[in-house]
């Protein structure tokens, strides 16, 4: 038994010294010290040793085990150090190489324009609100004084989910939802994505963004609407900006108007951007129709208000002199890094 243990010790130590990787060393450990290792097999043969010799044999087995474990730890420490040195050598940094360029991202032109618009209106005391993009037909049309037979509900203009649900064509439904809450007075803007069945070209897209505003209070007049939009235009496009209101028709406002601003490229003198007129159409607005107020649970004899809506992409295109709306969505870094 002693000769057998000595042979196991000698053979195991020799293999440990020859091991050049931690994986090979672990295989040697399993082969000699594992549950099915050679030293374990010797212990299983203890049942054949006489009672008198068992203590001596047990002591020899323990000595052999301790010697192998000690050698194992010694070789493992050397191999670990060797692996660490090789890794540090491989990962050494060449300080003479050029530094990597840190490419920082920045806001999209749409986001820049939106944040500027929100900043202006929040400064006037408005609250920014949002609503669902998939909307009930009632909120998108009927509650805005657009009956079932109105052309705006034509399938060629609208994405219908079913006869009662549509992808919203404007953010005006958010205004209706706010009015239905009955918390007066109201002073909000509602930005968000909207959908219309338009062909993609330089100025149209089936998915774009709108920002709509709503004010409801006692004694609100068209003069308040004009003053608000004139102040917004000055802060958005510059101190020399003037506004012009042209009569128009919207089902949910009465009276209604289209709003033009003096061209911020030529100052109203006439240029390519404003097509020589000196004015640029910018948004639609009007006083909230009494029927819309009544359908939302607001007494039109006691309260009045105004609403306005503008296209976010249109503002971005004009402000940054971009001539094709598709550039905003192509994700071309050569274009986006200009802003």
TrEMBL record:
* Keywords, comma-separated and alphabetical: Aminoacyl-tRNA synthetase, ATP-binding, Cytoplasm, Ligase, Magnesium, Metal-binding, Nucleotide-binding, Protein biosynthesis
Catalysed reaction(s)?
Answer: tRNA(Phe) + L-phenylalanine + ATP = L-phenylalanyl-tRNA(Phe) + AMP + diphosphate + H(+)
Gene Ontology BP, a term: phenylalanyl-tRNA aminoacylation
Residues noted as binding Mg(2+) in the record, renumbered to the chain: 254
Protein location? Cytoplasm
| InterPro entries reported in the protein's UniProt record | aa-tRNA-synth_II, aa-tRNA-synth_II/BPL/LPL, Phe-tRNA-synth_IIc_asu, Phe-tRNA_ligase_II_N, Phe_tRNA_ligase_alpha1_bac, Phenylalanyl-tRNA_Synthase, tRNA-bd_arm
Please give the chief subcellular localization of this protein: cytoplasm
Looking up Gene3D superfamilies in the UniProt record yields:
Bira Bifunctional Protein, Domain 2
Where is each Aminoacyl-transfer RNA synthetases class-II family profile domain found? Answer: 117-318
The entry's free-text remark on the cofactor is: Binds 2 magnesium ions per tetramer.
EC number annotated for this UniProt entry: 6.1.1.20
Q: Which cofactor does it need?
A: Mg(2+)
GO molecular function terms listed in the Swiss-Prot or TrEMBL record: ATP binding; catalytic activity, acting on a protein; magnesium ion binding; phenylalanine-tRNA ligase activity; transferase activity; tRNA binding
Provide GO CC annotations from the record: cytoplasm
What subunit structure does UniProt give? Answer: Tetramer of two alpha and two beta subunits.
Q: Which NCBIfam families match?
A: pheS
**What protein name applies here?**
Phenylalanine--tRNA ligase alpha subunit
In the record, what lineage is assigned to the organism producing the protein?
Bacteria, Bacillati, Bacillota, Clostridia, Eubacteriales
């Amino acid at each position: 038994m002693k000769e057998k243990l000595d042979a196991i010790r000698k053979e195991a130590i020799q293999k440990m010294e020859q091991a050049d990787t931690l994986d090979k060393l672990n295989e040697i450990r399993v082969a000699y010290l594992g549950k099915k290792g050679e030293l374990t097999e010797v212990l299983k043969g203890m049942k054949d040793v006489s009672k008198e010799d068992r203590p001596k044999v047990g002591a020899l087995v323990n000595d052999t085990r301790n010697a192998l474990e000690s050698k194992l730890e010694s070789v493992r420490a050397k191999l670990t150090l060797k692996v660490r040195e090789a890794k540090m050598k491989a990962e050494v940094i060449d300080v003479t190489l050029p530094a990597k360029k840190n490419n920082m991202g920045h806001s999209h032109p749409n986001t820049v324009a939106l944040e500027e618009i929100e900043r202006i209106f929040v400064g006037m005391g408005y609250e920014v609100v949002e609503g669902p993009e998939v909307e009930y037909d009632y909120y998108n049309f009927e509650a805005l004084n657009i009956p079932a037979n109105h052309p705006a509900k034509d399938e060629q203009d609208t994405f219908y989910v079913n006869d009662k649900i549509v992808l919203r064509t404007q953010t005006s439904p958010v205004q209706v939802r706010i009015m239905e809450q009955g918390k007066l007075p109201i002073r909000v803007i509602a930005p968000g994505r909207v959908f219309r069945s338009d062909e993609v070209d330089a100025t149209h897209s089936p998915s774009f963004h709108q920002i709509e505003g709503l004010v409801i209070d006692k004694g609100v007049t068209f003069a308040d609407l004009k003053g608000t939009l004139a102040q917004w235009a000055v802060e958005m496009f510059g101190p020399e900006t003037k506004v012009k209101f042209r009569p128009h028709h919207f089902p949910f406002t009465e009276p209604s108007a289209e709003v033009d601003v003096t061209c911020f490229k030529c100052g109203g003198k006439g240029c390519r951007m404003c097509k020589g007129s000196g004015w640029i159409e910018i948004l639609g607005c009007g006083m909230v129709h009494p029927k819309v107020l009544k359908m939302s649970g607001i007494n039109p004899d006691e309260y009045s208000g105004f609403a306005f809506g503008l296209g976010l992409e249109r503002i971005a295109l004009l402000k940054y002199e971009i001539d094709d709306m598709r550039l905003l969505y192509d994700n071309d870094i050569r274009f986006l890094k200009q802003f």
